[in-house]
Design goal:
- α1 (26-39) links the parallel β2 and β3 (41-44).
- The protein has a single domain (4-281), classed as 4-Layer Sandwich (Double-stranded beta-helix).
- It has eight helices and 15 strands.
- The two termini are 30 Å apart.
- 25% of the residues lie in helices and 25% in strands.
- The protein has 285 residues and is of the alpha+beta class.
- Bound molecules: N-oxalylglycine (OGA) and manganese (II) ion (MN).
- Residues 86, 109, 115, 126, 128, 140, 262, 264, 275, 277 line the site of N-oxalylglycine.
- This is TauD/TfdA family dioxygenase.
- InterPro entries: TauD-like_sf, TauD/TfdA-like, TfdA_dioxygenase.
- GO terms for molecular function: 2-oxoglutarate-dependent dioxygenase activity; metal ion binding.
Length: 285
C-alpha cells in the first residue's frame, strides 16, 4: 500500500498506508518528503516504534541532529544519544520533582520554537513518538510559517525583507530564569543568523522564520528588534495558522522545522509524560 493522506485543519495531514517499523523504500521516502513539502506536519496513528525502529526511520530521511545534547552530555535513558528524551522522567525512570533541572526543558518546550534553529545546520524533520501521555493537557501545537508569511500585510513584507535574526540556544532558558550556565557553556553554541524571510527550495513558498530562539535582529537596536520578533511571532501563531495535536500512545508526529514552529501545552508535571524524538539535520540545497 502507498501513502494515504487525510488533511487536518489548517495545514497538517493524517498519514497512513506505510508501516514505519519496516525499512522505507526510496519511493516511500519520496512520498513522505513530498507530503511534508505540502503539509509540513504529518500525524501517524498507531505506529509505536522501538528505539531502533525510530532511529532507522529517521536515518532514511536525512543525517541525524543531536540538538542540545551537544551542550549538556550527562546520563541518558536511551540507547542512542540522537534520541531526545522529551519527558519529565529522570534517568532512574521516576517522574522528576518540579525543582529538577529537567523540568525547565519541559517548560522551555512550551514556548513557540523551531528545533535547533540556534545552530547551523538547523533541524529539518523532527519525529516525536508518544510513549506515555498525561490524563489532561500536554497537547502539541504547530503553526505554519508559510501561511504566516502569506498573511502579512504588504508594508510588513517590505519591512522584513532582507532582515536577519540571531537565534541563540539559551535565550529561551534565560527568559525562564534558568541562568546557571558556565561561560564555556554559554559560548559553546554561538548564535546562528537566519533570514527572517526564506524561500523553501522545494515548494517555492515563502516562510516567516521566527520563534523563541530568535533574540536579536541584525542592524536594529536590541529593543526594536525584540519587539519586531515578538510582533511577528504573535502574528505567526494566530489560531487560524495552528494545528493542535492531542496525543495518543503510539502516535508518531513529524514536522518540518524550516516551515513551522511548535510548542507543548500545559500538563501537570506530577503526571508522567514521555515522548521520544529523533531529528534530522537540514541539508542545504
Ligand atoms: C519537541 C518539543 C513539545 C512537546 O519535542 O521538540 O518541542 O509537546 N515538544 O513536548
Ligand atoms: Mn521542539
Amino acid at each position: 500500500m502507498s501513502l494515504q493522506l487525510k488533511p487536518l485543519q489548517p495545514f497538517a495531514a493524517e498519514a497512513s498506508g506505510i508501516d514505519l517499523r519496516r525499512p522505507l523504500t526510496p519511493e516511500q521516502v519520496k512520498e513522505i518528503e513530498h507530503a511534508m513539502d505540502t503539509h509540513a506536519v504529518l500525524v501517524w496513528r498507531n505506529q509505536p516504534l522501538t528505539q531502533d525502529e525510530q532511529i532507522a526511520f529517521a536515518k532514511a530521511l536525512g543525517p541525524l541532529d543531536l540538538g542540545l545534547r551537544k551542550l549538556k552530555g550527562g546520563p541518558h535513558r536511551f540507547k542512542y544519544a540522537e534520541l531526545a528524551d522529551i519527558s519529565n522522567v529522570k534517568v532512574d525512570g521516576e517522574v522528576a520533582d518540579r525543582e529538577h533541572a529537567k523540568i525547565v526543558g519541559n517548560v522551555a518546550n512550551q514556548l513557540w520554537h523551531s528545533d535547533s534553529s540556534f545552530q547551523k545546520p538547523r533541524a529539518k524533520y523532527s519525529m516525536l513518538s508518544a510513549v506515555t501521555v498525561p490524563g489532561f493537557g500536554g497537547e502539541t501545537e504547530f503553526a505554519d510559517l508559510r501561511m504566516a508569511y502569506d498573511a502579512l500585510p504588504d508594508w510588513r513584507k517590505k519591512q522584513v525583507e532582507g532582515l536577519h535574526a540571531l537565534h541563540y540556544a539559551l535565550h529561551s532558558r534565560f527568559l525562564l530564569g534558568d541562568t546557571n550556565y558556565t561561560e564555556e557553556q554559554k559560548n559553546s553554541i554561538p548564535p546562528a543568523s537566519w533570514p527572517l524571510v526564506q524561500v523553501d527550495p522545494r515548494s517555492g513558498r515563502r516562510i516567516l522564520f521566527v520563534g523563541v530562539h530568535a533574540c536579536q535582529v541584525e542592524g536594529m537596536t536590541l529593543a526594536e528588534g525584540r519587539m519586531l520578533l515578538l510582533d511577528l511571532l504573535e502574528h505567526a501563531t494566530q489560531r487560524e495558522f495552528v494545528y493542535q495535536h492531542h496525543w495518543q500512545v503510539g502516535d508518531l508526529v513529524m514536522w518540518d522545522n524550516t516551515a513551522t514552529v511548535h510548542r507543548g501545552r500545559w500538563f501537570d508535571f506530577a503526571e508522567r509524560r514521555e515522548l521520544r524524538r529523533a531529528t534530522t539535520e537540514e541539508v542545504p540545497a
